[in-house]
Structures are given as structure tokens and as C-alpha cells.
From TrEMBL:
Catalytic activity: tRNA(Asx) + L-aspartate + ATP = L-aspartyl-tRNA(Asx) + AMP + diphosphate
Gene: aspS
Protein keywords: Aminoacyl-tRNA synthetase, ATP-binding, Cytoplasm, Ligase, Nucleotide-binding, Protein biosynthesis
Name this protein carries in UniProt: Aspartate--tRNA(Asp/Asn) ligase
Family: Belongs to the class-II aminoacyl-tRNA synthetase family. Type 2 subfamily.
The species this protein was found in: Candidatus Copromonas faecavium (nom. illeg.)
Residue numbers spanned by region Aspartate: 198-201
């Protein structure tokens, strides 16, 4: 009988230990996937890939026996050899092979040149073979950086006393309203896929004061643009006992500073692979919506066509203005018109046509929407009645306000958009592991 002691022991040495200078001259055994092979006749360079990166192995002599003679791309192998310093090798170290054991054999050649620095294929080809394309180090690095953004979000908010929650993604009705809903039958009852965790995170402010969640949201919008997905990952937080909605802007600014500091500290390899320029944030300017519209209209001699929202072109122009005026990659656009904000958005007491809400633009694209919520039950019911909205399906949500809620607000960040803008990617689908849009349901 065997017992699991809670520690997994392996004889394979991790690549990171083999890259160290003091390892030179030692015999080592490790395992990985064969990323690429360069056959030079009497000598072959066998590049191994693991989660940590690449290790160059060298197979010498033309008459090898056993598995050493059968190595090819796509195999999983366990190899043994002596380490030697080599300035031209990845991380300055290579493994002179003395033995190899093939652990798995591919049934077909790789459909993509994953061993190349840049594969030189279209985005559609990459998405069609997504699990294979992501074996390319540059493609894979996108999602290591995305991991770092999620880590930074979680670690910062946990340190600020937030509780992580996990809310349902199937509901009786939407928090946002509108027609862009994926509808389904839930055991013969009508249901929808969640557009956001808005109702749930507000309800949980009455329990934990501060909550956050990282999870999928669904938008049945019939668009096909470089900046939209029908399923994306939202990083949300909600916090109680606000003095002002600017408290949310301050919290997000500090959070972004912490997230980028983590990337700089622990994801240098991936940042270097993709030549990423991290933004330096000391502070983020706040610009009122009406002022932003006026500035863009005057600076670019263009009429204001959409008085209640920002057009993508306007977002780009505001981003340029923020960079040129304040040397900031970010800008908060505040006091959005009430007409374009959900019923729970708190109206500005000085101008009820505006709300105490904001979007955060990053290099000219909206990545965050947030604001202060109505916490008074009477005010909330009045707003619903004013908009002619049916309260069916919102009973439990409204009960929270009936029995008392603190002043609160929150925000949601689109993880893929944040990643896209950080990496200067051309299309948001490059920043989605398995994107879902109007035409793509697989892989």
C-alpha cells in the first residue's frame, strides 16, 4: 500500500536551476518538450521547452543509438547530460546529451512553426490551432502577463481587506438591462447568462463591506470589432462606506500601481519577450465627461455627434490629450450622463442629468466602468419607477436596500482589454485564451 505524504518528489531538475553558472560541469537530468531541432550534421541543437522557458541541449556525432537517434519536434523527453557554459545558448547554458528517453510520441508533425521567434501566421490560423500556437514562447507570454495582472488585482485587494466572492453566472434577469442577453432554458424556466456580477457584489457589500471577483461575463452584442468579445473576464470590486466616488478612483489608481509593480518585479522575462512598456503611474487625471467632449470637439474641429456617450475615436483623442497634457497613459472620465448609466447609478446632486460615475481610459480605450451606487431604498424605487422598469426578479436585490445598505460603489475592469492595451495588441482576441465572438465557438 502507498501513502501520499503531501510532497511530490521528482528526479528531474527544473530549468531555472540548470541555468545557474555554478551548475556548469555537473551532470543533470531534466524533462521537457522538444521545441525545435537544428540538425547541423555532426551536431544537432535540441531546444527543450518547459513552463520556465527554453534549455539548449546538444546531440553530438552522427551515429547515436537508441532514443538519442530518434529525437524529433513535439516529443516529451527525459534527458541526461553534462552542463556547459555557452554564451549563445538561452540563459548562457547548454546540456551536452549523453542519454534520452522518449516519454510520448506525436502522431503527426506540428501544424505551426512554434519554434520560431515569430510564427508569421494570421490571427485566424493561430486561433484555429490555439493550443498548439500557445506553445510559441511569445504567444504564451501574453497569458503569463495576464496571470500577473490577475495576481496583482487579487493580492492588492486582499491586502486592502476585500473578500473574494464567486457569484452565479446563470440568473433570472440581468443587472444591466437591455437586449444584449444570452437567453436559455433553465429546467423549463427562462434564464440569462450574467452580463456582470453587479447585483451580487452590491448585496455582499452589506455582508463583507468590501468584495471582489474575477469571473466571466457574457454580452450578446452583434458586433465584430477589434475591441469586443461576447465572453470576457471581468475583474470587479465593490466597497462600502464611501465618502465620494473619487474614493474608487483612488483605490483603482493604487491597485494599478501595485499590479504593474508586480509585473516589473516577477514577469521581467515575459515583458522583455514582448517588448512591453509598463506605464508609470504617479497619479491619474480626472476629466469630466462634458469637458472631455468639448475639448475633443474644439481640438479636432469635429461636431459632437453622440452627447450621451464617448465614441471610440473620441476615447482615442482623449487618451492622446491626456498623454500630451499630463504625460499620463490613463485618464478618468467622470460624471457620465444619467441617460446612459444603469438605474442603480447615483445621480450628481448638483446636476441630476449626470451621475457620480466614471470610465477609465488606458492609452485611448475604455478598460474600466465604475461609480457610486444608490444605497437608499426609497431613491432606488423612485429611479426604477421613473424609468418604467419592472422589479420582477429583483426582489432579493431590493430587499437588501429595504433593510439598510451603506454608501457604496465599485467598478469592473475588462481583463482582456487591459491586457490588449498593455501589450499594444491589434485585436482583443490576441489577449483571450480561447476567444468567443460572433463566429467562434471553438476550440
Amino acid at each position: 500500500m502507498e501513502f501520499a505524504a503531501g510532497v511530490w518528489e521528482t528526479k528531474d531538475v527544473e530549468f531555472a536551476r540548470l541555468w545557474k553558472e555554478e551548475a556548469a560541469g555537473q551532470e543533470a537530468e531534466t524533462a521537457g518538450m522538444i521545441h525545435s531541432i537544428r540538425d547541423m550534421g555532426e551536431i544537432s541543437f535540441v531546444i527543450l521547452r518547459s513552463r520556465q522557458g527554453l534549455l539548449q541541449a546538444v546531440r553530438e556525432g552522427a551515429g547515436q543509438q537508441g532514443d538519442l537517434s530518434r529525437l524529433k519536434e513535439g516529443q516529451a523527453v527525459r534527458v541526461r547530460g553534462v552542463l556547459k557554459k555557452e554564451p549563445k545558448a538561452p540563459h548562457g547554458m547548454e546540456l551536452r546529451l549523453s542519454d534520452a528517453r522518449i516519454l510520448s510520441e506525436p502522431a503527426a508533425p506540428l501544424p505551426l512553426p512554434v519554434g520560431k521567434w515569430k510564427m508569421g501566421i494570421s490571427l485566424e490560423a493561430s486561433l484555429d490551432h490555439r493550443p498548439i500556437a500557445l506553445r510559441n514562447l511569445r504567444e504564451r507570454a501574453v497569458f503569463k502577463i495576464q496571470e500577473g495582472l490577475c495576481r496583482g488585482f487579487r493580492e492588492f485587494l486582499t491586502g486592502q481587506g476585500f473578500t473574494e466572492i464567486h457569484t452565479p453566472k446563470i440568473g433570472a434577469r440581468s443587472a444591466e438591462g437591455g437586449a444584449n442577453l444570452f437567453k436559455l432554458s433553465y429546467f423549463h424556466h427562462p434564464a440569462v447568462l450574467a452580463q456582470s456580477p453587479q447585483f451580487y457584489k452590491q448585496m455582499m457589500v452589506g455582508v463583507f463591506d468590501r468584495v471582489f471577483e474575477v469571473g466571466p461575463v457574457f454580452r450578446a452584442e452583434k458586433h465584430s470589432t477589434r475591441r469586443h468579445l461576447n465572453e470576457y473576464t471581468s475583474m470587479d470590486f465593490e466597497m462600502g462606506f464611501l465618502d465620494s466616488f473619487y474614493d474608487l478612483c483612488q483605490m483603482e489608481t493604487a491597485m494599478l500601481q501595485s499590479m504593474f509593480a508586480l509585473l516589473e518585479r516577477e514577469y521581467g522575462t515575459e515583458l522583455s519577450l514582448l517588448d512591453v512598456r509598463l506605464p508609470k503611474i504617479t497619479s491619474i487625471p480626472c476629466l469630466r465627461f462634458d469637458e472631455a467632449k468639448r475639448l475633443v470637439s474644439e481640438a479636432c474641429h469635429r461636431p459632437i455627434r453622440s452627447p450621451y456617450d464617448l465614441e471610440p475615436e473620441e476615447e482615442g483623442l482623449i487618451g492622446t490629450y491626456a498623454k500630451e497634457t499630463w504625460d499620463s497613459d490613463f485618464v478618468f472620465v467622470t460624471h457620465y450622463p444619467s441617460k446612459k448609466r444603469p438605474f442603480y447609478a447615483m445621480e450628481d446632486p448638483e446636476n441630476t442629468q449626470a451621475t457620480l460615475s466614471f470610465d477609465l481610459l488606458f492609452r485611448g480605450m475604455e478598460v474600466t466602468t465604475g461609480g457610486q451606487r444608490i444605497h437608499d431604498y426609497g431613491m432606488l424605487m423612485e429611479k426604477l419607477e421613473k424609468r418604467g422598469m419592472d422589479t420582477e426578479g429583483m426582489e432579493e436585490y431590493l430587499d437588501c436596500f429595504r433593510y439598510g445598505m451603506p454608501p457604496h460603489g465599485g467598478l469592473g475592469i475588462g481583463l482582456e482589454r487591459l491586457t490588449m492595451q498593455l501589450l499594444s495588441a491589434e485585436n482583443i482576441r490576441q489577449a483571450s485564451l480561447f476567444p468567443r465572438d460572433m463566429t467562434r465557438l471553438k476550440p
